[in-house]
Amino acid sequence: MAKEKLDAHPSGAICCCRKAEKFLFSVYDQGYPKKAYRMSANMIGGNPEPGDISPEIVLIKEISEKLDPNHASEKKFVGKVKWASEADIRLIRNGLLGGIQPMQDFFIRQPEVN
Question: Do the domain assignments include residue 108?
Answer without folding.
Answer: no
